[in-house]
Amino acid sequence: MKNIRNLWNSPNLGMLTVAALTPSEWDIEYIDEHLRDIDFNQKYDIVGLSCMTQQIERGYEIANKFKEKGITTVIGGIHATVRPEEVAQYVDVVIAGEAELTWPTFLEDWGNGTYKKIYKELHPGMLDISTSPIPRYDLIKDYNYSTITINTSRGCPHDCSFCAASRVYGPVYRRKNNEQIISEIMRIKELFGNSYILFGDDNIFVSRDESKDLLREIKKLNVRWVAQTDISISDDDELLKLMAESGCQWVVIGLESIARKSLEGINKWKTDRLDSYRDSIDKVQSYGIGVMGAFVFGLDYDDYSVMEDTIKFIADCNFYGIHVTSPTPFPGSRYRNVMQESGRLIDLPWSYYTHWDVLIKPNLLTPNEVQNCIYKIYRAFVDEKEANKRFANFIHKFRKRDVGNVQC
User: Fold this and answer.
1) Do the record's keywords include Metal-binding (predicted)?
2) 115 and 163 both lie in a single domain
3) CA distances to 80, 112, 226, 330 from 199, in Å
């Protein structure tokens, strides 16, 4: 878990974008409570918070402390977007949806003393994000982040049942232009030198030709980067070569499950590719690009045999890393609706929506058994013998290839 936290130690890009949308005459302080304490005695005009579901209750606590002092409190982010009426009970203002369309209007209304309780996009998923400003990366100069985040796109065409992204950002894939993305990379290099860049997109390579053109430009910049994508990148040798040459270190690929029946309930597109998972992972890693495989355990057809098969599959594939979670019924997802309607939703506070706490009544196992199975999968992965085998495999792959300026 320490390794996972370190890999994802990156700034809140949404907040830095909101800061960039704020007029220059405003003084802005960015506080990441994971790394810095909040001074509740500070006198602010507005306190804005961005919260995921597992953070929202802490967000309410913070907002209440400032609200008691007469400070205007605002919450945005994914939970506020899918549950605006709930969030509105705890703060003065809710920003639901993409801030580029709502934050400037709120600030103008606030200045006039006429602000509303909830600001929503009229047409979610329609914003032209090529108009979005470069985030205020200068505000995090004093933070020791291991990676700095860039988003090149919003929206995802893969409508997975457990994901709320399609509802929040829409199913239409929208992308910044390459000049805009390169400008953001150059700003990061200017401020942070050779830090890792994390492309935070749900699926970065949907627009394949534009992505290849982008990688050709990144190749000139001597950067190291990581990203989230899907298994189809294994079909494209030109893309993989460009990824390696431009400094890609590893990618997160959502495989979800190796049990066909379990996978069928998540996404048909992934089910159709299940038989080629092993070869696809080997293909990507043959370019010296690590694959962090993301799995969900505790789906309706998962039992102890699926756990054992998953452990074996992970060992055979020599993954760079793994991310194994329990099925989480996030608000806004189709999966939550199904679990609620079938009476299988376990009533626990939002703080339990961590991906690792079991929040549904599993079909074949108990909640404790699901958590123990997830633990066993992780334990098998970090076994010293398995770790040494993976290390030797990656050394071999890096030594035998020749893809230019890749940093190993």
Assistant:
1) yes
2) no
3) 23, 38, 6, 23
Residues 161 and 305 in one domain: yes
Residue 124: Cβ-neighbour burial (10 angstroms; 0-12, 13-18, 19+)? middle
* Residues 208 and 275 reside in one and the same domain: yes
Give residue-wise pLDDT tens across range 356-378: 999 999 999 999 999 999 999 99
Domain that holds residue 341: 146-400
Among left, alpha and beta (phi > 0; psi -120 to 50; other), residue 98 is beta
Give phi and psi for 174, each to the nearest 5: -120, 135
DSSP state of 172: S
User: Pairing relation of β-strands 196-199 and 174-175?
Assistant: unpaired
The pair of structure tokens assigned to 95 is: 């920003």
Helix, strand counts (H, E) of the chain = 17, 12
- Position 173 scores a pLDDT of 83
CATH of the domain at 31: 3.40.50.280
Tokens of 398: 């890096």
Residue 151 CA: distances (Å) to CA of 28, 47, 76, 146, 297: 22, 24, 18, 17, 28
Q: What tokens does 346 get?
A: 């376990």
Could you give the CA distance from residue 129 to residue 112 in angstroms, rounded to a whole number? Answer: 28
- The CA-atom distances, in angstroms, between 92 and each of 49, 68, 87, 268 are 12, 11, 9, 42
Report the chain's mean pLDDT, rounded to a whole number.
92
Please tell me whether residues 17 and 160 are part of one structural domain.
no
**pLDDT at residue 404, rounded to an integer:** 44
Report the distance separating Cα 371 and Cα 279, nearest Å: 29
The answer as to whether 301 is a domain residue is yes
The total of structural domains in the chain comes to 2
- Same domain (yes/no): 13, 92: yes
Residue 381 clears pLDDT 80, i.e. is over it = yes
